[in-house]
Amino acid sequence: MKIRMVNSGVFTPIDDIQATLTAPEQGFYWIDADAEDLNILQPLFSLHDLAVEDCLSEEEQRPKIEIYEDHYFIVINSIRFDDEEIFLRSLSVFLGRNYIITVTNQKINELRTLKPILWEQEVSEPDRFLYLLIDLVVDNYFSVGDRIEAKIEKLEEDILMHTKKSHLIEIIGLRSEILWLKKVLGPQKEVINILNKKDLRLIDDQLQKYFSDIYENAVKIAETFETYRDLMGNLREAYQSSIANRANEIMRVFTAITTIFIPLTLITGIYGMNFTNMPELDMKYGYFMIIGIMATLGFGMFLIFRKKDWI
Amino acid sequence: MKIRMVNSGVFTPIDDIQATLTAPEQGFYWIDADAEDLNILQPLFSLHDLAVEDCLSEEEQRPKIEIYEDHYFIVINSIRFDDEEIFLRSLSVFLGRNYIITVTNQKINELRTLKPILWEQEVSEPDRFLYLLIDLVVDNYFSVGDRIEAKIEKLEEDILMHTKKSHLIEIIGLRSEILWLKKVLGPQKEVINILNKKDLRLIDDQLQKYFSDIYENAVKIAETFETYRDLMGNLREAYQSSIANRANEIMRVFTAITTIFIPLTLITGIYGMNFTNMPELDMKYGYFMIIGIMATLGFGMFLIFRKKDWI
Amino acid sequence: MKIRMVNSGVFTPIDDIQATLTAPEQGFYWIDADAEDLNILQPLFSLHDLAVEDCLSEEEQRPKIEIYEDHYFIVINSIRFDDEEIFLRSLSVFLGRNYIITVTNQKINELRTLKPILWEQEVSEPDRFLYLLIDLVVDNYFSVGDRIEAKIEKLEEDILMHTKKSHLIEIIGLRSEILWLKKVLGPQKEVINILNKKDLRLIDDQLQKYFSDIYENAVKIAETFETYRDLMGNLREAYQSSIANRANEIMRVFTAITTIFIPLTLITGIYGMNFTNMPELDMKYGYFMIIGIMATLGFGMFLIFRKKDWI
Amino acid sequence: MKIRMVNSGVFTPIDDIQATLTAPEQGFYWIDADAEDLNILQPLFSLHDLAVEDCLSEEEQRPKIEIYEDHYFIVINSIRFDDEEIFLRSLSVFLGRNYIITVTNQKINELRTLKPILWEQEVSEPDRFLYLLIDLVVDNYFSVGDRIEAKIEKLEEDILMHTKKSHLIEIIGLRSEILWLKKVLGPQKEVINILNKKDLRLIDDQLQKYFSDIYENAVKIAETFETYRDLMGNLREAYQSSIANRANEIMRVFTAITTIFIPLTLITGIYGMNFTNMPELDMKYGYFMIIGIMATLGFGMFLIFRKKDWI
Amino acid sequence: MKIRMVNSGVFTPIDDIQATLTAPEQGFYWIDADAEDLNILQPLFSLHDLAVEDCLSEEEQRPKIEIYEDHYFIVINSIRFDDEEIFLRSLSVFLGRNYIITVTNQKINELRTLKPILWEQEVSEPDRFLYLLIDLVVDNYFSVGDRIEAKIEKLEEDILMHTKKSHLIEIIGLRSEILWLKKVLGPQKEVINILNKKDLRLIDDQLQKYFSDIYENAVKIAETFETYRDLMGNLREAYQSSIANRANEIMRVFTAITTIFIPLTLITGIYGMNFTNMPELDMKYGYFMIIGIMATLGFGMFLIFRKKDWI
Mind listing the domains of chain B with CATH numbers? Predict the structure, then answer.
């Protein structure tokens, strides 16, 4: 647990916080806690029982916002693209009049990125901290979206060039990734919309219009993901068509082989007939001539088909 | 029939209701009735004949709203997802100045859920009761929508992985479920729109904007269901393509077998010809050599095709 | 021809109408005429020549509105779904300051439905009559739309379950029905838009917003029909895919038969070869053994294919 | 070259025009010229050099509007559907304060249609003339659109009923016609938008809202053509599916023939084997019995396939 | 490096610029520099370090705008279609109160086109210069869009007429070109939106509405490119269908050949049977008759198939 008195040099020991909570005019506390620290923090900031319970729970938390008497409890999902895989981290935030508590069980990149910004921009209200944090979180969705788009395009090109059966697995994998992100983004968007629209006491009116920018971005991301879903449909179609065409190619080769051999078989059939009077049969080199004719015919058909680009 | 004096401890026997109807400043009556109770209630609240008739009728009621002199009659459809099946329940509501009568023939979850909320939120007007009720009803559509979406996604994945003929039945079933819900939702949306837009005497102006929130939700649900319809079209397409591709696979195997055997047949045809001078025929082990050659050739073709991943 | 003094008990003989036309404060005339009656009515109401000519013409009239000095001439198309067929009826209306003349050559349901409403709602202006009439007309398009949607859904299900060639005829029929309705609705929408938007002297400003409701409905219907067109495209696709898949099934059976017989033919080819030294040929029961082997092999292949669900 | 003093009986010889140009309060000149007349007109009206050059050029002019000091130069494309072909005519217009010069090299229907309207509506300003002219031009696009839609629908029905290879040529032809019109309409729309939006000195403010009506129509047409493009995509799809299905039908017949003959060939193979002990071979009518059996078998298979509707 | 005192005849040597920078009432400096010139210019105009660094970097710059104390740094991408290939050039601009510095490493057409316009339109503010420049840049995207559209249409027609395998390469190439442009346009649009929306000190309020026109155009282009993406999907589909149909055609020919030969093979099979009593075998010209019959039959089938347009 790290406690920082943002925008004020003074460091306050954890036990004195309560005293200063009532009137820190020159800044606010940012407490970067993990779930277990809440046991200490709850009595100090009188955090709501249900919210603390949520943080302590092992389960994945869905994005939500709870409005309590003198603080808000916000859960949002941070996203990270690592090693071609997408990771989701729940980030819980308690926002009070002059403190903000971020609760995470795993390191979250956005918090690290946020630190220098806080000092540089001379942030002095917790609601502005919240805005910057959520902005960073939402921005990350864009870059994840870009990565997914790149993956889709790569896959589409691969499918068109050399379809493989394994592409189906990739399509299904990518598709469920997109659906999963779409599902995550839904409630997140709702949380941001509440910050944007509702008349919230702890969030400055001036600031609210910035949240509306974030909301617009969230909507844009959701639309993009909707588009990806359609693109996946196209991909599925391209794959199935490619597979069908490839199957057709093979069939064509098979059929071509049959088509070359059937006339030759007819010739052998002819000289296998038992007519009494078949002059060719008694010619000395009849057999060899016929073999020669058959070879010529077969090879000729092969050449014609090849020239016509049929096989 | 259960009568409750909401937000006031006083219990009024059914026969005294009429007396108190004129001036219960501190709350309103909620009467949770079934259709038969209406015979008693109709004279007390002078409910409109046509509305009562509708409630008593055996037929499924479509969502609607009727505006009478001093009360409204509203029918909405509650939805429930149980055991992978969707159930629809008609819920009729009589809304008066200081009473609300809910008429149901089957238990409706939303009413049960509503009870604690009424007390907790200190609801003291019947129109607010109506708002909370319809809000719950509409919210349930969302969760039904989620379940349907999950079903669609599961089915799509199944189809892409291992298409079975039975999937067609599932597609048709799911598709008609969606169409049915779309049809149910249409008039429901209209009812909510009237509550939202029209200038209704019995509904507080302040409250009306809340109805507009519900209406937005209803519109969102309707759009979602429209999307599901499109998704079902994609599913149908994916199924048909998959079936076609699978048929192609089998055809390919068949054709491959034919293609392997045809050249062998040609060889037998050759040695079945009746030429006088065919030296091989008189070789001692000619027959066995040819059998060997044929076996080698056939097996060789099989190996080549397999290696090329053609069969 | 029926003349009614709407909202006033007084009946006026046709010849006296002109006298009262100038100042009937307490109501308006509704004259339910057929085309021939116009010969009598034209001089009385000084109806415009071109309008009367249109009514008398045998040809189908397209919806339109003509603004004349002291009356409007409106043609709209009423629609009726009867015995699974759609019928279109032209309905011509002359709207004056205190009269409305409806000209029809066939009975039109909407007029019959309108009568009780007129009395019930105490309609006392001709423009309100017009509003109610057009509202009824447009409402009927909704129910026709519903029927068409039901037809489409039924057809889609039929096609997916058991595709028949006759379905193509049904698709084409339904499709041209939809295109025809779309074409009818276009100018109708324009007429309503003029009633809604333009500043018309004979139509009360208050009433105009009601026309805007009708216009919204007309737009909604037009959009629905646009959707139906898309649905028909899907249907065509589903049909063609189904037909293709069914053809594939049959091909598969054919190919399977060939595939079973080709190896057997090879065996007969082998024993048809003329090698001198083929020990099997001289075995006493060689022939019967080979026939047995062939039968076993053929039947075995059949069983394997069946078990793999290939035929 | 025809000069008309619109809305004023006075005819002015071409040489006196300049004199009256400064103050013709009661009307305006309409000069219906061809390109060569411009040599005479240019000095009189001091038309801009570049504009006159454009008119004289042999090349097809793209729709555009040029704003000069005291006159505007407008080029629009008139469209005509004649003998199932679409013709495009450039129409150049010089609009001055009290004159309008229309320059055409071929007869343009819209000008002919316009003449009676000018007199009937007592048009007395050149900008209103321009409005009426462009309105007529744009209206013609609608009817061309209708014709194209009719062509598309006819073609779609033809394709679904009896696909022919020639349909592909028709699709491609229709498709490029639509693309060509779309390209023509683009800059035309821009010209109208400028007349509609920009603050133009020579066009009355009152009139500008009428141009906005035309612009709306132009937008509607452009959207319609966008739709046609999609419809052509569907048509292409329908054609390709139909062709594929028809090919499948033929393949099926071929395969059916093969399937009927293969078992018969097996029988001949059996009796062509050289086993010593094959009792049937020595039966007197063995040969004829086998021929009979083969005929029966072949015909039987044919009947079965036919009955199953497989061929 | 060329320095111009736009809209003022005075030429200022580079070293005196700083002196005049404070008060050049009658114009502004346009300095057309390349990256290396920045070493001289940076101290004179106190350009921001990071911006200069960006210009000097070898890497391709993404479009962006940076707002510094007394100047803005803007990067946009100019596009050029040359020899059927699309080239992208980064163009960096420093905008100050009375100077504009354009930094390019390659010649950019837009700057050349801009020169005469500057003098003609008597541009006297640097922000207006910026507007004209960006307008030209964005306009070029339209013409690139047109070229791409033409390419798509040409390719579509080619594919429909004579599908070749090489078309797939063209589709993939065109597709990635479109995706690449879409990606370039995205941040460009954002830059223009900032110029359009944000309250920027160095850009005149009057001018801002012109930037809004450019933004509209940029949005239109982005939408067009979105459409192209869809069109590429259609193209892919058309290609795959065409390839499939072409494969079907070939298969049909193959199958037709087989179908013609199989019955002939049956005949040879019949006369290859070893029945003792087969009268035809001993007829003198039996063999030749059978050969004749087979030839007739084969040729007859060929004619029938050809007449039915099956091969």
Answer: 2-244 (3.30.460.20), 246-307 (1.20.58.340)
| Residue of chain C nearest B284, judged by CA positions | C277
Closest partner CB to A247 (pick from B245, B269, B277): B245
Q: To the nearest whole angstrom, how far is the Cα of D299 from the nearest Cα of chain E?
A: 14
Tell me how far apart the alpha carbons of residues A229 and B252 are, in angstroms, rounded to a whole number: 32
Contact D160 C171 (CB under 8 A): yes
What is the count of residue pairs from D and E with beta carbons less than 8 Å apart?
100
Burial C276-308 (b: 16+ CB within 10 A, else e): eebebbeeeebbeebbeebeeebeebeeebeee
> What are the b/e assignments for B284-304, b being 16+ CB within 10 Å?
eebbeebbeebeeebeebeee
Of B171, B243, B281, the CB nearest to C274: B281
Strands D64-67 and D28-33: unpaired
Q: For residue C165, give the DSSP letter.
A: T
What residues contact A203, with CB distance under 8 A and at least 6 apart? Answer: A127, A130, A195, A211
**Average pLDDT by stretches of 10, chain B with 311 residues:** 57 60 66 84 86 82 85 90 81 89 83 78 83 90 88 90 88 88 86 82 82 87 87 90 89 92 94 90 91 95 91 78
**Chain A positions in Cβ-Cβ contact with residue E285 (cut-off 8 Å):** 277
Residue D93 pLDDT exceeds 50: yes
Residues E290-299 have pLDDT tens digits of 999 999 999 9
Tell me the nearest-neighbour CA distance from C183 into chain D, angstroms: 10
Contact D64, D92 (CB under 8 A): no
| pLDDT digit string, tens, across residues E99-124 | 889 988 777 888 888 877 777 777 77
Residue type, position B189, single letter: K
Contact A99, A30 (CB under 8 A): yes
How many angstroms separate the CA of residue C281 from the nearest CA in chain D?
A: 4
* pLDDT the model gives residue B19: 58
The helix or strand, by DSSP H or E, that contains position A107, with its residue range, turns out to be none
**Amino acid letter at C99?**
Y
B153 reaches A (C-beta below 8 A): yes
Q: Which amino acid would we find at residue D128?
A: R
Of the candidates A243, A247, A286, the beta carbon closest to that of B275 is on A286
Which ipTM value was assigned to this complex? 0.74
Integer Cα distance of A238 and A219 in angstroms: 29
In whole angstroms, give the CA distance from residue C192 to residue C211: 7
Instruction: Name, of A297-306, B188-197, D49-58, D122-131, the range with top average pLDDT.
Output: A297-306
- C299 to chain D, any CB pair closer than 8 A? The answer is no
State pLDDT tens for residues C213-253: 888 888 888 888 888 888 888 899 999 999 988 888 899 99
**Which phi and psi (to 5°) does residue E211 adopt?**
-60, -30
The residue whose two tokens read 């949306």 is B189
pLDDT tens across E181-217, in order? 888 888 888 889 888 877 788 888 888 878 888 888 8
The predicted model scores a pTM of: 0.81
Q: Kindly list the partner chains of chain A, i.e. chains with 3 or more CB atom pairs below 8 Å.
A: B, E
Which residues neighbour D21 within 8 Å (Cβ) at sequence distance 6 or greater? Answer: D29, D44, D45, D98, D99
Q: Does C282 touch chain D (CB under 8 A)?
A: yes
Give the model confidence (pLDDT) of A98-118 as tens digits.
888 998 877 788 888 887 777
Q: Does C143 touch chain B (CB under 8 A)?
A: no
Which of A246, D230, A255 shows the shortest CA–CA distance to E168? A246
Q: Which residues of C touch D247 (CB under 8 A)?
A: none
| CA C101 – CA C34 distance, rounded (Å) | 10
Sign of the dihedral through C-alpha E160, E165, E168, E170: negative
Q: How far is CA B160 from the centre of its chain?
A: 22
